[in-house]
Design a protein that fits this description.
Blueprint (H helix, E strand, L loop, with lengths): L2 E4 L3 H5 L20 E10 L2 E5 L5 E4 L1 H9 L9 E8 L16 E11 L6 E3 L2 H7 L11 E3 L4 E3 L2 E4 L2 E10 L3 H4 L3 E7 L9 E9 L8 E10 L1 H11 L5 E6 L14 E6 L7
Length: 274
């Protein structure tokens, strides 16, 4: 089986739960990067910075940000990204290394890729969901094991606003065909009743006019779920305590949708919300 592109390597899997402070005392100064991980992209009046899941602020040098922008990364159009950074020597931080309080770091941006998914579809009926988020092909499994590193890749929350999904799908081995594919995260508010505690999302893959399944593509996608959570709370009376993702999955090269959904559960709770 050929793979045309993948971000889901073992190295990326390891950093899912690693915060910036855990790497401050590393002796691996000769590597191409000192840290890599998921971040929110913050665009402000005074410039762009990144924020990791621990609340740490990573401020890229202007030169390094411009270099990565020229390579195709658009910080002004990105909300969630995976970045590789190199620490700037003699970085001043607001707290001592090793403390858990969020810190600020000056970094050189080595590489970055946007992980933004389509806008989350909040539909009022099943028919409306089908129209707003068409589904014409399955996806691969949203959970799998990396035997080399002994880790499991699966859906997770970055924060209470952002759901991260490791998505794989099949397509024609052609970049133009790749552009036809859309991945939607959708919910049907008709399914929500007062007192409910579970918010159900449907991952829906639209292959457009791509008729073949020759290779597979894999990447993390980040979805802003705030609108869905707010609408759920209005109907149920409170925020959800857990999220369920339903997906039509396949392990073979096919465009046919299976009859049943696979389900994945994520607890909707964090110690802090960034």
């Amino acid at each position: 089986m050929k793979q045309i592109k993948s971000l889901m390597t073992a190295a990326l899997m390891l950093v899912m739960g690693i915060m910036m402070t855990s790497c401050l005392n590393s002796d691996n100064s000769e590597s191409l990067y000192d840290w890599a991980g998921f971040v929110l992209v913050k665009n402000t009046m005074v410039g762009t910075y990144f924020q990791d899941a621990g609340g740490n602020k990573l401020i890229p040098t202007y030169e390094s940000l411009m270099a990565v922008e020229q390579a195709g990364f658009k910080s002004s159009e990105t909300n969630v990204a995976f970045v590789y950074v190199k620490m700037v020597e003699d970085t001043e931080t607001s707290t001592k290394a090793g403390e858990t309080t969020p810190q600020t770091f000056d970094v050189k941006l080595v590489a970055a890729q946007s992980l933004d998914g389509e806008d989350v579809v909040v539909a009022q009926t099943a028919e409306e969901m089908a129209g707003m988020a068409p589904e014409t092909a399955p996806v691969g499994s949203l959970e799998f094991s990396d035997n080399t590193w002994g880790t499991t890749v699966k859906p997770m929350l970055f924060d209470l606003n952002t759901l991260l999904l490791p998505i794989q799908f099949y397509l024609t081995n052609d970049n133009e065909k790749f552009k036809l594919h859309k991945l939607y995260l959708a919910c049907n508010m008709e399914e929500v009743s007062e007192g409910d505690t579970t918010l159900v999302f449907y991952l829906r893959h639209d292959r457009g006019a791509d008729e073949k399944a020759e290779v597979y593509y894999s990447q993390w996608y980040g979805f802003d779920i705030r609108a869905a959570v707010n609408m759920f709370a209005m109907k149920s009376g409170a925020d959800p305590t857990r999220i369920v993702i339903k997906a039509h999955e396949t392990q073979s090269m096919t465009t046919e949708l299976p009859d049943r959904y696979e389900e994945y559960e994520v607890e909707y709770t964090l110690e802090t919300q960034n």
